[in-house]
Amino acid sequence: MDSPSSRVPLRRTADQRWSLFFRTLAAVVGGYVLTSLMIVAFSLAWPGHRARGVLGVSMLGFLIYAGIVMWAFTVRTARRVWWTLLLASVALGILITLLKLQKAT
Questions:
Q1: Average pLDDT over residues 29-55
Q2: Radius of gyration in angstroms for the set of CA atoms belonging to the chain, rounded to a whole number
Q3: Residue 22 forms part of a structural domain
Q4: pTM of the model
Q5: Does 55 reside within a domain?
Q6: What's the domain range around 81?
């Protein structure tokens, strides 16, 4: 017979629910934004014709997005997920700006 201390509680606390909500929001919205920025950066850096680069990287984007969503649920805290997505998005934004400046010259 199971002891009371070995039972898993069925009810979640409010903190756990909010953490799950913000982690899911980060995975869906933040993952989409980061994937979109990666697609833009990779397509700008792709050698050759731009349309082929966009097509090739867009197909890769499905794997990138799935990886980001899975990663968001393996990180210890939702705050770390948000900060990592934010910093990666800023870094990719800077990279995109530099690539556009390089292509313009």
A1: 89
A2: 19
A3: no
A4: 0.81
A5: yes
A6: 36-105
